[in-house]
C-alpha cells in the first residue's frame, strides 16, 4: 500500500534522534457540554481564554527551523497546510473529540468541571468513530473539533502528517514511566523451561501463535513490537494486499490469528475473536485498548498480549481495578486471574515475573498519552484549554474521582494510571523522539517498498514498449540509481 494512502505505514524521516529525558508531566484532556452527532459539522469556535491567565506559552506554530527535518514531513517550522490556515468561525466554543458513546458521557461530566474555570468558553463533545476520524475532524477545512486525547503512536501521526501540536500530557504517580511489554501465560514459559537444550522462551517462538493487540498505531502495543520484529528480521515487509496497511500485513504474516477489533474495518483484525468483529456504531469492543487486549489474553483468545506495563497488575484478580472491572462487565471472580498466572516475555529471551517489573524486559519506555490541538489554534484559546485542564485535574475532587485510578476502568479518554494533567509548553517534536525511534524502521521499509515498486514499474514499462526506447531506458536507470542510494541510506 502506498505510504501516503489512508491506513498505510507513515512516511517518516529517515533519521532517528536520540530520545530526550522523560518529561516530568504527561496526559490528555478535553471537555464538552453537549454531545455532537458523529457526522456533526458545527462551525468551530475560537475566542479569548477565560479564567486564570497562564504564563506565555511558546508558539508551536512558529518555531525555529529545524534543518534535520525534511520540508513537509512534520517539521515544527513547516508552513501550515491550507486546512490549517483556513479562517476560523467566530465564537468561544471548545469541542472535545471522543470515539464512543461511553466517552461522550464521561466527556459531558468532565466539562461541567472545566466550564467554571473558563466561563468565556462553551465546552461541548464531538463523537467520531476513531482517533483517525477525530484527527480528520480537527484538521478539516472547516474544523469540526478542537482537541483530542491521543496515544503517543497517534500523536506521532497527528504531528508529522497533520502538524497538530501537543498542549498537555498525563502525569503519572511517582514518575511512573510506561514500558512496552509482551505478556504471556505462565504455562507457556513453564513448558519451554522443560526443554533442557533451550529453556528460555523467545519472541521468535510466538510465530504462528495468536496475538492480542490493543489497537492500530498504539505505541506500546503496536509500534514497539513491530519495530522489534523488523529489527530482528522475524518478519519481512508485506505489500500484497492494497486494502491493508503494510504493517498489518506484516503482523498477520507472523501470527496465525489476532484480535484487534476496530470501528474502522481497514485496521480491524478479528480472526481470534470473531464474535467481537462487528461493533455497533459508537460502541467499544471489550477487547479494544490495552485493557481489552489483556482481557483477550485472560479469556484465552490469544497466547500473547502486547501491553503497557501496569495493566496486568491493575486488572488481575487482586489489582486496584479488579472490583470495578467485575462490576462494569458483570464478570465473576473466576474470570479474573491472578497476576502470578502471567509472565513478561523479555525481548532478549526468557520470562520474568510480573512483580519484578519491566526494566530490562521490555521493548523500551514509551511516552504517555497527551492532548493535541490544531497547529494554528489561537494562543489565548490554547492557554484557556490548558488552564482549565490543569486546574480541574489538580483542584477539583469530582474531576479527579471521575478519571483517576480505580474509577476509569475502561480507560475512557485517559489511561487509568493518570494522576493529573500536566501542561506541555515546549515544541511537540522532542516529546515524540522515542516514539519516532519505535516506528522509524517501519518507515524505512515502506520507503524501500515504494522505491521497489517504482523500479518494477519502470522495468515493466521498458518491456511493454510504452513510450520511446530512450525515455524508457532513462526511467529505469533513474529508478535503479535512486533505489540503490536509498538502500545504502536505510
TrEMBL record:
Residue spans with biased composition (Low complexity)? 1-13, 77-89
Region Disordered: list its residue ranges. Answer: 1-90
Q: Which UniProt keywords apply?
A: Repeat
Which PROSITE patterns does the UniProt entry name for this protein?
A: TRANSFERRIN_LIKE_2 (PS00206), TRANSFERRIN_LIKE_4 (PS51408)
Where in the numbering of this chain does the Transferrin-like domain appear?
94-445
**Gene Ontology terms: cellular component:** early endosome; extracellular space; plasma membrane; recycling endosome
What Gene Ontology terms for biological process does this UniProt record contain?
A: iron ion transport
Fetch the Pfam families from UniProt: Transferrin (PF00405)
Q: Name the Gene3D superfamilies on file.
A: Periplasmic binding protein-like II
Q: Which domain of life is it from?
A: Eukaryota
Looking up SUPFAM superfamilies in the UniProt record yields:
Periplasmic binding protein-like II
Keyword Cytoplasm in the entry? The reply is no
PANTHER family (alphabetical)? TRANSFERRIN, TRANSFERRIN 2
Which protein is depicted? Answer: Transferrin-like domain-containing protein
Q: What organism does this protein naturally occur in?
A: Chara braunii (Braun's stonewort)
Amino acid at each position: 500500500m502506498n505510504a501516503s494512502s489512508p491506513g498505510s505505514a507513515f512516511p517518516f524521516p529517515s533519521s532517528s534522534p536520540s530520545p530526550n529525558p522523560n518529561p516530568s508531566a504527561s496526559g490528555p484532556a478535553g471537555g464538552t457540554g453537549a454531545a455532537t452527532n458523529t457526522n456533526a459539522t458545527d462551525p468551530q469556535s475560537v475566542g479569548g481564554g477565560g479564567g486564570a491567565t497562564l504564563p506565555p506559552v511558546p508558539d508551536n506554530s512558529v518555531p525555529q527551523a529545524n534543518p534535520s527535518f525534511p520540508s513537509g514531513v512534520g517539521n515544527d517550522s513547516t508552513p501550515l497546510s491550507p486546512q490549517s490556515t483556513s479562517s476560523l468561525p467566530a465564537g468561544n466554543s471548545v469541542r472535545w473529540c471522543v470515539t464512543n458513546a461511553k466517552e461522550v458521557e464521561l466527556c459531558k461530566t468532565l466539562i461541567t468541571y472545566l466550564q467554571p474555570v473558563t466561563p468565556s468558553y462553551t465546552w461541548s463533545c464531538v463523537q467520531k468513530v476513531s482517533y483517525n476520524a477525530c484527527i480528520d475532524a480537527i484538521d478539516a477545512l472547516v474544523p469540526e473539533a478542537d482537541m483530542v486525547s491521543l496515544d503517543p503512536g497517534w500523536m506521532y501521526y497527528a504531528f508529522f502528517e497533520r502538524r497538530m501540536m501537543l498542549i498537555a500530557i498525563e502525569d503519572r504517580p511517582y514518575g511512573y514511566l510506561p514500558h512496552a511489554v509482551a505478556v504471556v501465560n505462565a504455562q507457556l514459559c513453564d513448558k519451554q523451561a522443560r526443554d533442557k537444550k533451550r529453556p528460555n522462551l523467545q519472541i521468535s517462538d510466538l510465530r504462528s501463535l495468536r496475538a492480542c493487540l490493543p489497537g492500530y498505531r498504539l505505541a506500546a502495543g503496536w509500534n514497539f513490537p513491530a519495530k522489534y520484529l523488523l529489527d530482528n528480521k522475524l518478519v519481512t515487509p508485506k505489500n500484497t494486499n492494497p486494502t491493508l496497511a503494510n504493517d498489518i500485513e506484516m503482523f498477520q504474516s507472523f501470527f496465525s490469528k489476532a484480535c484487534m477489533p476496530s470501528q474502522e474495518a481497514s485496521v480491524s483484525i478479528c480472526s481470534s475473536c470473531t464474535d467481537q468483529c462487528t461493533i455497533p456504531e459508537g460502541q467499544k469492543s471489550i477487547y479494544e485498548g490495552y485493557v481489552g487486549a489483556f482481557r483477550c489474553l485472560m479469556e484465552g483468545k490469544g497466547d500473547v498480549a502486547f501491553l503497557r506495563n501496569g495493566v496486568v497488575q491493575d486488572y488481575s484478580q487482586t489489582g486496584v481495578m479488579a472490583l470495578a472491572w467485575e462490576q462494569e462487565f458483570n464478570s465473576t471472580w473466576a474470570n479474573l486471574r491472578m497476576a502470578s498466572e502471567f509472565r513478561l516475555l523479555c525481548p532478549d529471551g526468557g520470562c520474568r515475573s510480573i512483580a519484578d517489573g519491566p526494566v530490562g524486559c521490555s521493548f523500551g519506555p514509551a511516552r504517555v498519552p497527551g492532548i493535541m490541538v490544531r497547529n494554528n489554534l489561537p494562543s489565548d484559546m490554547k492557554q484557556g484549554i490548558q488552564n482549565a485542564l490543569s486546574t480541574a485535574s489538580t483542584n477539583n475532587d469530582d474531576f479527579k474521582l471521575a478519571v483517576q485510578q480505580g474509577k476509569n476502568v475502561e480507560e475512557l479518554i485517559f489511561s487509568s494510571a493518570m494522576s493529573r494533567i500536566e501542561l506541555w509548553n515546549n515544541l511537540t517534536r522532542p516529546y515524540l523522539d522515542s516514539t519516532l525511534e519505535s516506528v522509524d524502521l517501519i518507515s524505512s521499509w515502506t520507503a524501500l517498498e515504494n522505491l521497489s515498486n517504482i523500479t518494477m514499474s519502470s522495468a515493466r514499462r521498458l518491456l511493454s514498449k510504452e513510450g520511446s526506447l530512450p525515455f524508457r531506458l532513462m526511467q529505469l536507470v533513474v529508478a535503479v540509481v535512486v533505489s540503490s542510494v536509498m538502500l545504502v541510506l536505510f
